[in-house]
Amino acid sequence: MFWNKKDKELDGIIEEIKVDLSNNYKDNAVLGIKKLKEKLSEKEASGKMKEKELKAYQEILHSFEEDVKNFKRTY
Question: How far is CA 37 from CA 65, 67, 69, 74, in A?
Answer without folding.
Answer: 10, 15, 15, 25
